Amino acid sequence: MNPTRKEKLLFWLLLAAYSTFFAEVFAGSDMFPFFNIWGIFVVVPLYGLHSIILTTIIYKYGKPTLATLVFAGMLFGLYEAYMTKVLWQPSWDAAITLGEVAWVEVLVLVFWWHTWFSYITPLLLAEKLLTNSSEILNSLPEKFQRFYSGWKGYLALIIFGGIFQSINSPSVFKSFLSGFSSIGMLVLLTVIWQKTTKNARYSLSELLPNGKEFRFLALWLAALYIFLGFNMFPERLPGIVGQSIILAFYLLVIWLFRLALKKSYTHPIKTEKEKVPARKYWLFIGLVFIAVLVSARALLNAFLPVIVLLGWGIGSSLSLWAFWQAYKEIKPRPKNRFSVDGTGIP
């Protein structure tokens, strides 16, 4: 039995909520995205539309692999150029600006934060909790599979997110409200999903939009790009040099994504479902997030900047490693010059 339109819409909303939580609530950029007009009508749709559209493209033109997921995530992260202008002129002091481009922000936001926190991690969580498949998880290298297969990896992420937000939060009380309300919203939406579907389990691919739905969502995302592009910090748009560099980077990532999709056709897909940890573990993770938010400043105040910088360094390094592994997946293998047909057999 195929999912109903209502069930698909609810799944898209949940994926958008998961993505917004990991990206915005973790960073403290928007601590209450589910409870303000900007968050409901701009932030949540922005994250949801990117996640749904990119995942649909992967399933329509290829298969989930590390390469398709990483390059899709990087395309996601590039919204920080023409939408927010952060890749050119962030609201904080850019560490390294060359050719009008803030390169540390490109590394941290495009290669790491949005690829993994806005896209891959929420997609893995949605697949684990809401579907009967584990194709996304099984497409990752073994190290990542071990990290994401149970609940302990998510616990480690939630602790990091709580510490990270506490640095950017104006007060401990606001951190508590942010954590309590955000976790509460995710739990509520997940419970509504379970009641609406009556615990029916669909595959991830079944929950993605069809052709007509995809076109509507793509137009919606395009409208968001136009709206934010012209109305959000237009004065921060750089000159021709900065825009040319980012546009060239866009083309490079699109080219890599296209190659990854083409290559992924030959990739064997594993569909066996991993065992989902019991509800109590997920509720425990949510409570830990709230506890870290209210205690990090008191317990780790002197070390918070060092911890966050260390997290940035480790996260960016792992992301560069993942990027290299993804590139190796699609890198053409050199032909043996002693072989007639390139197989290595004379």
Proportion of residues in β-strands: under 5%
Structural domain count: 1
Radius of gyration: 20 Å
Percentage of helical residues? 55-70%
Q: With helices defined by DSSP (H or I, 4 residues minimum), what is the helix count?
A: 13
- Low-pLDDT stretches are 338-346
Main β-sheet description: 2 strands, antiparallel
Spatially, the strands of the biggest sheet line up as 1-2
User: Which structural class do you get from the secondary structure elements?
Assistant: mainly alpha
The separation of the N and C termini measures 53 Å
Reading the helices and strands in chain order gives HHHHEEHHHHHHHHH
Number of strands: 2
Report on the structure:
- The protein has 346 residues and is mainly α.
- Helices cover 70% and strands 1% of the residues.
- It has helices at 5-27, 37-61, 66-77, 79-82, 103-130, 135-138, 142-149, 152-168, 172-197, 211-231, 240-264, 279-300, 304-330, and strands at residues 97-98, 101-102.
- Strand 1 (97-98) and strand 2 form a beta hairpin.
- The radius of gyration is 20 Å and the shape is globular.
